[in-house]
Design brief:
5 strands, Thymidylate_kin-like_dom, alpha/beta, Rossmann fold, ATP binding, about 200 residues, 8 helices, binds thymidine-5'-diphosphate, transferase
Length: about 200
C-alpha cells in the first residue's frame, strides 16, 4: 500500500517530546499560511476516553482487549479526524498511531510485528513519514519524574525498555529519526525540512 501524502505521524516514548513537536510544527506551518491540523491518539471521543481509563489504571484489559480497543479508537480517529482533514487538503500531524500499539501492546502474547500486521489488515492508511523521537528509556523516565502528573501504566523502566526495543523492531523504512536531546527549536526545524507543503 502506498504512503498517504500529507499524513505525518509522531512516535516515541512517553516524555520524548512528541506533543511539543507536533504543536510547534503546527504553529510553523500555520505561520506560513499552510493549511494544517493536529490530532492525537487515543482520541477525545468515547473510545479514547475508555482507553484513558485503562492507561490511568482505573480499569484492566487483557492484552487482546487492549489491542481491540486501540484499533477501534483508531477507526474513529481515521473516520472523524484524519480522513476528513486529508480530503480538505490539510496537512495532518498525528501524535501516535499504529506504531504505538505495536510497541506498547507487544509482550508475551503478541509480538510487535503481529500487532502491526493487525493494523495493516484493517487497511489503515500508511503515513507519508513517521517521525521518531529517539530517547533512551532511562532518560525518558527521568523526564517523566519531573512532570507534575500522575504516572500512566507504562511509565516504569521495564515497560519503557520493552517499548523502546519493540519500536526498533517495527519502525518502517520511511521513518525519520530525531534526537530527542536536541533543543525543541532544532527538532522542529529538522522535522519541517521533511514536510512537503
Ligand atoms: P500520550 O498521549 O503520548 O501521553 P500523555 O498524554 O500521557 O503525555 O499517550 C498516552 C499513552 O497511551 C502512552 O503511555 C502510550 C499509550 N498508547 C498505547 O499504549 N497504545 C496505543 O496504541 C496508543 C496510541 C497509545
Amino acid at each position: 500500500m502506498a504512503n498517504t501524502p500529507g499524513f505525518y505521524v509522531f512516535e516515541g516514548l512517553d516524555g520524548s517530546g512528541k506533543s511539543t513537536l507536533t504543536r510547534r510544527l503546527l504553529d510553523l506551518l500555520q505561520s506560513k499560511d499552510v493549511p494544517a491540523i493536529c490530532f492525537a491518539e487515543p482520541t477525545r471521543y468515547e473510545s479514547g476516553i475508555y482507553l484513558r481509563k485503562f492507561l490511568s489504571g482505573e480499569i484492566e484489559l487483557s492484552p487482546e482487549k487492549q489491542i481491540e480497543a486501540f484499533l477501534a479508537d483508531r477507526e474513529v480517529s481515521l473516520q472523524r479526524n484524519i480522513l476528513p482533514s486529508l480530503s480538505e487538503k490539510k496537512i495532518v500531524l498525528l501524535d501516535r498511531y499504529m506504531y504505538s500499539t505495536a510497541a506498547y501492546q507487544s509482550g508475551e502474547n503478541f509480538s510487535a510485528r503481529e500487532i502491526l500486521e493487525k493494523n495493516i489488515e484493517r487497511k489503515f492508511p500508511k503515513p507519508e513519514i513517521v517521525f521518531y523521537l529517539d530517547l533512551k528509556p532511562e532518560e525518558a523516565l527521568s523526564r517523566l519524574k519531573v512532570r507534575d502528573t500522575t504516572a500512566d501504566r507504562f511509565e516504569t523502566i521495564s515497560a519503557l525498555q520493552k517499548i523502546y526495543k519493540a519500536y526498533e523492531e517495527i519502525l518502517p523504512k520511511n521513518t525519520i529519526r530525531l534526537d530527542a536531546n536536541l533543543s525543541p527549536e532544532s527538532i522542529a526545524e529538522l522535522a519541517l525540512n521533511h514536510i512537503d507543503y
